[in-house]
Amino acid sequence: MMLSRVADSFYWIGRYTERAEHACRVLQITLTAGLEAGAEEAEMTTERAMRALGAAPMAARMDALEEARLLTFGGKGDLSSIHTAVFAARENARQVRDQITTEMWERLNRLYFRVRETATKQNFGQISAGFFEETINDLHAFKGIVSGTMSHGEGFHFLSMGRTIERAQLIVRLLDLHFGEKQTAIGDFGWVQLLRMCCGLEPYLRVKTATFRRDQIADFLVLDPYFPRSLRFCANTIAQHIDAVGALADERARETCTRLSGRLAARLNFAVLEEVTGKNGQAFIAQVADDCIAISDAVHAAFISYSLADRLPGTSTLGVR
Amino acid sequence: MARAPDKISDMAVPPRPGQEGPFAGYQLGAAYDEMFDAKGDPRPAWAGLYNRLSQATPQSLRDLQANIDRTFMAQGVTFTVYGHEDSTEKIIPTDILPRIIPAAEWDKLERGFKQRLEALNLFLADIYGDQAIINNGYVPRDLILGSSNYRREMLGVEVPHGAYVNICGTDVIRREDGDYVVLEDNLRVPSGVSYMLSNRDAVKRAFPDLYRAARVRPVETYPDDLLAMLKSLASEYQPDPTVVVLTPGVFNSAYFEHAFLARLMGTPLVEGRDLAIHDNVVYMRTTSGLKRVDVIYRRVDDAFVDPLAFRPDSTLGVAGLMNAYRAGNVVIANAPGAGVADDKAVYAYTPQIIKHYLDQDPIIDIVETFLCREKSQMSHVLANLDKLVVKAVGESGGYGMLIGPHATKAQIEEFATKIKADPDNYIAQPTISLSTAPTYIDSAVETRHVDLRPFILCGAKMTLTPGALTRVALRRGSLVVNSSQGGGSKDTWVLSGPSDGRART
Question: Is ipTM beyond 0.85?
Answer without folding.
Answer: no
